[in-house]
């Protein structure tokens, strides 16, 4: 008898749950996903308004969502209208009479229903991705003018075509891009110059400070690159980042602006970053990275070293870099270019190299029609009295490592070596 009652109770409970589930379903809240295209997890964020009643806000929400769903169903286009909210901020400000004293129960039930509906709708809209159709750049490398075809620009133009060919072939061989998915992370390192329609992906230790100076001059923020200090370049927030635009602005710029990046031999870039961050006083890298590295990899470390994080050795730094269980995360100064700029997702029009910086940079400025008096600056941005990191200096640092550590370091940057056609830095590498 007891077993029968228990079984009946379970059936009733399940049936009640099913009824509640069916009741809560709202067909107009389901936004169908369509392919092919980019799943772009970046919503159009509406500005927060202070004086908006909950009823008016709910009516707008119903109308905008219905319009958005209708447009998706009626068209094969993957562009959602800007009026469709994709990420809502809480602006729910209810009158005090509703908050503190609800006399009419019917009115209270209606308000609770609106709140529940808003909550469910907000959750579904927030989770729904924005789909943007994406192809490779409408631009390729800007076409050479007739007067340029018989001078030095012609050979540089061919070099660019070859660099892009190698990059694309590497991506085709090693990366699967059947569905090109771009997120805000992929464009977070890209700076925007709207006047000359340039997108620049920042690669630290590859001339990025001077490139930012050039972009500021192009944008009319300064008359000369020499007038712009280091802190103004990096902490002044004068340049816009691509992830600061809404999805329509990002899509437009990716497809119509000239996209460029400059890269550097990976080992040389790594040594340059180490010298800059760990061999000079630094109130961020020493306490954040230095202390963790010394604590993990130095035997019998002194209390002073553990307290300050100063004096990290290159071998200890490499141990940290190769450790899959790093005591502290990665940093953009020694991360892969492949991860910083996503060249297999974003079709860059121009690929420059630090090793031929002056020639490549001035060729790029010529192609975009920059003022003739603007050239790429040659001065060293930091520690100007210190020699630049060269191939010889890089080999001296890597000579401190074992052959196994050198090989693992090469494997770590293998895709950068392959994608940008750099030769092996040591003969014993395979």
Quick overview:
The chain is an alpha/beta fold and 430 residues long. The protein contains 17 helices and seven strands.
Task: Summarize the SSE layout with pairings.
Layout: H1 2-24, E1 38-40, H2 54-74, H3 96-100, H4 105-127, E2 130-132, H5 152-174, E3 190-193, E4 198-201, H6 208-218, H7 230-235, E5 240-241, H8 247-256, E6 258-263, H9 266-278, H10 285-297, H11 303-308, H12 314-322, H13 337-341, E7 350-353, H14 357-367, H15 391-398, H16 403-412, H17 414-419
Parallel strand pairs: 4-6, 6-7
Antiparallel strand pairs: 1-2, 3-4, 3-5
Helix pairs in contact: 2-4, 9-15, 10-12, 12-16
Give helix and strand order, one letter per element, not per position. Answer: HEHHHEHEEHHEHEHHHHHEHHHH
Strand order of the largest sheet: 5-3-4-6-7
Described by strand count, sense and barrel closure, the largest sheet is: 5 strands, mixed
Structural class label? alpha/beta
Radius of gyration: 28 Å
- Taken as a percent bin, the fraction of beta residues is 5-15%
Q: Provide the helix percentage.
A: 40-55%
């Amino acid at each position: 008898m007891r077993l029968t009652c228990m079984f009946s109770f379970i059936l009733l409970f399940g049936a009640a749950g099913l009824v509640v589930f069916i009741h809560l379903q709202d067909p107009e809240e389901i936004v169908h996903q369509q392919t092919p295209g980019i799943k772009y997890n970046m919503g159009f964020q509406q500005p927060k308004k202070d004086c908006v009643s909950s009823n008016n806000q709910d009516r707008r929400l119903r109308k905008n969502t219905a319009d958005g769903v209708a447009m998706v169903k009626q068209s094969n286009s993957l562009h959602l209208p800007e009026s469709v909210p994709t990420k809502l901020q809480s602006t729910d400000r209810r009158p005090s009479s509703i908050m503190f004293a609800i006399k009419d129960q019917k009115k209270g039930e209606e308000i609770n229903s609106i709140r529940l509906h808003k909550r469910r709708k907000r959750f579904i809209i927030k989770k729904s991705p924005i789909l943007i159709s994406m192809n490779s750049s409408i631009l390729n490398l800007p076409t050479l003018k007739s007067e340029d075809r018989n001078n030095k620009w012609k050979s540089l133009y061919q070099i660019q075509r070859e660099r892009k060919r190698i990059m694309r072939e590497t991506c085709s061989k090693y990366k699967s891009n059947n569905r090109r998915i771009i997120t805000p992370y992929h464009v977070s390192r890209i700076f925007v110059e709207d006047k000359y329609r340039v997108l620049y992906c920042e690669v630290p230790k590859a001339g990025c400070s001077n490139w930012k100076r050039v972009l500021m001059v192009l944008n009319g923020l300064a008359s000369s690159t020499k007038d712009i200090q280091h802190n103004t370049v990096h902490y002044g927030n004068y340049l816009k980042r691509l992830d600061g635009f809404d999805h329509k602005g990002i899509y437009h710029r990716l497809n119509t602006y000239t996209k460029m990046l400059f890269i550097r031999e990976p080992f040389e870039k790594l040594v340059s970053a180490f010298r800059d961050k760990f061999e000079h006083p630094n109130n961020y890298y020493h306490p954040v990275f230095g202390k963790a590295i010394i604590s993990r990899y130095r035997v019998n470390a002194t209390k002073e070293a553990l307290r300050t994080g100063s004096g990290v050795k290159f071998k200890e730094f490499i141990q940290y870099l190769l450790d899959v269980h790093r005591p502290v995360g990665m940093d953009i100064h020694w991360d892969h270019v492949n991860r910083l700029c996503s060249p297999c997702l974003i079709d860059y029009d121009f690929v420059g190299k630090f090793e031929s910086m002056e020639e490549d940079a001035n060729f790029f400025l010529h192609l975009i029609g920059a003022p003739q008096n603007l050239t790429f600056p040659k001065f060293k941005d930091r520690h100007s009295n210190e020699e630049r990191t060269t191939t010889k200096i890089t080999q001296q640092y890597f000579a401190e490592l074992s052959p196994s550590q050198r090989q693992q370091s090469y494997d770590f940057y293998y895709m950068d070596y392959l994608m940008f056609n750099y030769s092996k830095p040591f003969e014993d590498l395979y």
